[in-house]
Amino acid sequence: MVKAGKQGARRLASAATRREYALEMFLAGKTYQQIADALDYCDRGSAHRAVQGALAESAERTTELADQARPIILARLDRLWGPWFKKARGGDPKAADICLRMVDRYSKLHGLDRIQIDATVTSRSEIDAEIEELMTKLRATPAAAPNPQPQPEENHHVR
Question: pTM of whole model > 0.85?
Answer without folding.
Answer: no
